[in-house]
Amino acid sequence: MKKYKTQSLAKYLNDLAARVPAPGGGSAAALNAAMAASLISMVINFTLGKPKYAAFVEELKGILIKSEKLRVDFLDLVDLDVVAYQSKDIRKALDVPFMLSRLIYQAAKLCPPLVKKGNVNLASDVAVAAVLLESAFVCACFNVRINLKNLEDKKLAQKIMKELNQMNKVIAGIRKNTEDEVGKIIRG
Question: Where in the sequence is the domain holding 53, given as residue range(s)?
Answer without folding.
Answer: 22-187
